[in-house]
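Supplementary Methods. Inverse-folding protocol.

Structures were first reduced to a discrete structure-token string of length 153. This string, shown here, constituted the complete conditioning input.
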């Protein structure tokens, strides 16, 4: 009798006919992976400005997203100063970012690439309360951000 149970169990254990093999069904890994954040890159140079905007020379995004400008906080990105309009996936050049308030004087600012993580075309990243549209990452997994010096004049 024990041999009969083992044979029945073995026969049932290898039956994959009920498994969903649809290419449209996301795997657990795909569902948990989150938005595509990379690879991304950003190029910005030190510049003269009237203090109301900055220009990013180029940004390459893996999906639609934004350029977000942060103030300097002891050598790291700090509070938000402004963000661009929605940018397409791929390369965008000469992106102007209007700041929410003019710079008071010369400053280091941190342009950072972000992705539109939920695809709603609305910028949503105001930590700590709103963190939907996350920073984009470079090919080596670092945040796509560069510090630049802005001379106001």
């Amino acid at each position: 009798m024990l041999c009969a149970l083992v044979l029945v169990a073995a026969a049932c254990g290898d039956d994959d006919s009920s498994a969903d093999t649809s290419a449209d069904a996301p795997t657990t890994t795909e569902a948990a992976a989150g938005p595509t954040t990379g690879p991304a890159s950003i190029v910005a140079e030190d510049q003269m400005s009237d203090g109301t905007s900055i220009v990013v020379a180029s940004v390459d995004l893996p999906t639609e997203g934004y350029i977000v400008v942060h103030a300097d906080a002891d050598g790291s990105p700090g509070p938000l100063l402004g963000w661009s309009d929605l940018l397409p996936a791929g390369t965008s050049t000469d992106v102007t970012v209007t700041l929410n308030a003019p710079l008071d004087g010369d400053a280091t600012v941190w342009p950072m690439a972000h992705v539109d993580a939920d695809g709603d075309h609305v910028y949503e990243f105001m930590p700590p309360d709103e963190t939907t549209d996350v920073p984009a990452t470079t090919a080596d997994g670092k945040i796509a951000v560069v510090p630049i010096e802005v001379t106001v004049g």
